[in-house]
Amino acid sequence: MHPAFDTLVHQVSAALDEDLGPETRDLTAELIPESHQAEARLICREPALVAGVAWASETFRQVDPSLEVTWHVQDGDWVEANQLWCEVRGNARSILTAERTAMNFLQTLTGTATTTLAYRAALGPRDTLLLDTRKTLPGLRLAQKYACTVGGATNHRLGLYDAFLIKENHIAAHGSITGAVTAALDMELGVPVEVEVESMAELDEALNAGATWIMLDNFSLDQTREAVKLNQGRARLEASGNVQLNELETLADTGVDAISVGALTKHLRACDLSLRVEMSA
């Protein structure tokens, strides 16, 4: 899932506005003579799974369409430390103005993809889906979810608009799981109706109510195995709740259909990028 181009353009524009302010100025870059040219080389100081090339390219384009950007990697490439990612040639001021915003997108999305790849690798060849969540950086929902797919995850719902996820407060408002699920199904929207359950009794009620997807919230391994046995394939079961990397194999082997991990987007560590610039008059 790659965000629509207009969404990407908006994200880059908003990030540049944040950096350049109401007067659209880079005061420090103005110390450099306007005619100066430069060549920059982008590397990453550590191994990583590349994601975010389109965002970086769009950043350079919005700052100065005349900049020449040559990529030596693409999204989904595994790169080693100090490998050349791209070269940028053109106006020195423009390169320095675009530098931080372009690298912010790349380091965030590459960090997301690299973390996701580690979780996906921990699952091995199993068919269990690795799901992302809505615990994303504000304004970067689609960008981070795209990076998760680069790393091998499957997107859960993109927002509040494309699926039901009935939790304790929704259940309380209707008085029961059955009431909430029935109300969702009565809307006949043709979207998934998922229920978060916290016990075997709630699971049984959700299944009987017709939920098509059920999230097992912080179930123990024994409870998860019992849930799979009770379910008998009637709904898709998703394990969720503080899932650790070293627990994935054991959790997947319980037979759940999917495991959702908020850490893919919430606890990401940005990769260590460096843009080395050489000036020329």
Description:
It is a single chain. The chain is α/β, with parallel strands linked by helices and 281 residues long. The protein has helices spanning 5-20, 53-63, 92-123, 141-151, 168-174, 177-186, 200-209, 221-231, 248-252, 263-266; strands at residues 37-44, 48-49, 68-71, 78-79, 84-91, 129-131, 164-166, 193-197, 213-217, 236-240, 258-260, 273-280. The strands form three sheets. The chain has a six-stranded parallel β-sheet. It is elongated. 38% of the residues are buried.
Please provide a brief summary of the model:
The chain has about 280 residues and is of the alpha/beta class. The chain has ten helices and twelve strands.
Uncertain regions spanning at least 5 consecutive residues: none
Mean pLDDT across all amino acids? 95
Report the sheet-strand fraction: 15-25%
Please outline the major beta sheet. Answer: 6 strands, parallel
Count of DSSP E strands? 12
Number of helices: 10
Shape: elongated
How many whole angstroms does the radius of gyration measure? 23 Å
Task: Walk me through the topology.
Elements: H1 5-20, E1 37-44, E2 48-49, H2 53-63, E3 68-71, E4 78-79, E5 84-91, H3 92-123, E6 129-131, H4 141-151, E7 164-166, H5 168-174, H6 177-186, E8 193-197, H7 200-209, E9 213-217, H8 221-231, E10 236-240, H9 248-252, E11 258-260, H10 263-266, E12 273-280
Parallel strand pairs: 6-11, 7-8, 8-9, 9-10, 10-11
Antiparallel strand pairs: 1-5, 1-12, 2-4, 3-5
Helix pairs in contact: 1-2, 2-3, 3-4, 5-6, 6-7, 7-8
Give short descriptive properties of this protein.
281 residues, alpha/beta, six-stranded parallel sheet, four-stranded antiparallel sheet, 20% strand
